[in-house]
Here is the input.
Amino acid sequence: MAPASPSPASQPFSPWALLLEYNGGPFVGWQRQDAGISVQDVLENAAARLNHGAPVAATVAGRTDSGVHAAGQVASLSLPTGFTARQVRDALNFHMKPHPVAVVLAAPAPEGWNPRFSAIHRAYRYQILNRRARPALLEGQVWHVAAPLDAGKMHEAAQTLLGRHDFSSFRAAACQAKSPIRTLDRLDVSRLGDLITVAVEARSFLHHQVRNLVGTLRLVGDGKWPVEKIAQVLAAKDRSAAGPTASADGLCLIRVTYPVEPFADSSP
Amino acid sequence: MAPASPSPASQPFSPWALLLEYNGGPFVGWQRQDAGISVQDVLENAAARLNHGAPVAATVAGRTDSGVHAAGQVASLSLPTGFTARQVRDALNFHMKPHPVAVVLAAPAPEGWNPRFSAIHRAYRYQILNRRARPALLEGQVWHVAAPLDAGKMHEAAQTLLGRHDFSSFRAAACQAKSPIRTLDRLDVSRLGDLITVAVEARSFLHHQVRNLVGTLRLVGDGKWPVEKIAQVLAAKDRSAAGPTASADGLCLIRVTYPVEPFADSSP
Here is the structure.
């Protein structure tokens, strides 16, 4: 008689680091919730298929909101020992079809590594399509602003926000962070044709911080506010002093950095 | 008694030049046909709304195939005299909703100008996503090739195709052009991360020429063919000597050039 397969409970597990790309459009966000399907649902359901149907819990570097995209999200989960990195990547991708979520790279997770708490730097890109006509090719991946924006003035205003500050003016009411102090390392605004790109980098962000920064800079861009007002908005430490939250569509998590790069030896 | 509105027949018409962006995914191509909805259908149906419901015929610089995208297609049509450029653009965009087609710019068409026959240069971009994982963010806008491609070798092979040649080896059987002779001005292959971009420029192209060039260069990229074979394929003047046609998904018409730029005074 053939030996029975090992039961899930008795099997050793190995932790994996995953580099994820997803289109946030159809999802309620990263996090599992009752309201609809999440990126976490899609990934964990696929992982369960590699674990004899038993649940698998994934953790993530940045819990993106509904509609927010990722080109370089990093997640972690454990699977029964024995898979190669290539098998993990390809099998998860197979089981996540047809959802717009892809494991670009898989690598053994470094000892004691956590995708969220080990991260030392996060980079987001925010895209604004600045023209009268609505987007056709980039639909769902840009914030469409029809009024002409002065990207140079937006960039100038953005530079007054760099460094370590109390970002309460740019923090969502629902933000669960203990402190509103963050260090903003980069906030560059540049235009290429109709497309304005905002490159944002920091060790970590408050909830809605990037979208609130962009929504506020837009008021400088269309001339409603002078460049100098942004420093006053920051100093107010009051959410109502800043501009509205920019659309989720334009936001994409580009890169998460760790002291030891989990994917250094991986090939796409 | 108020005068009746002028009947369409008695009304003078003004010709317009339109810069169009579209996602080719949901369409049977530019050209109207029975099989499904075309970009031409969407544009002409919107234009008819500005012409008392009477039909409007549009002509175009490049009759893109099913699934092919455009960021800089140029079309022409005539509308009853009296609209401003801004009204033409905004009204057509309003009536084309929710189809992924947008009039980015509208301008009065120059005297005697024809979007197809006046064009002196056309630029296409072809994108290949070269990694194991299928596309999530760029789904439908790239050709997914999982096998590793050497973009440097593809570029080297591409350079042997530049200049004036008989491109019969890269011409679709259905091509209606009188001559297979074309002058290829640019065929650059470059890689940025997982994305390989092919930039292609010529005065005009044969049917499927760009996709057949890319499908053939891919065989050099994955090592099946040596770089030197491409010159032999060209010399064969035989479609069966070249590689397969690359997916429509990766192709985008970027720019059409005219001796007098119709949109020089337009603002987006």
About this structure: The longest strand of chain A covers residues 69-80. Strands of chain A lie at 13-22, 59-60, 69-80, 101-108, 121-129, 143-144, 163-166, 181-192, 195-202, 251-257.
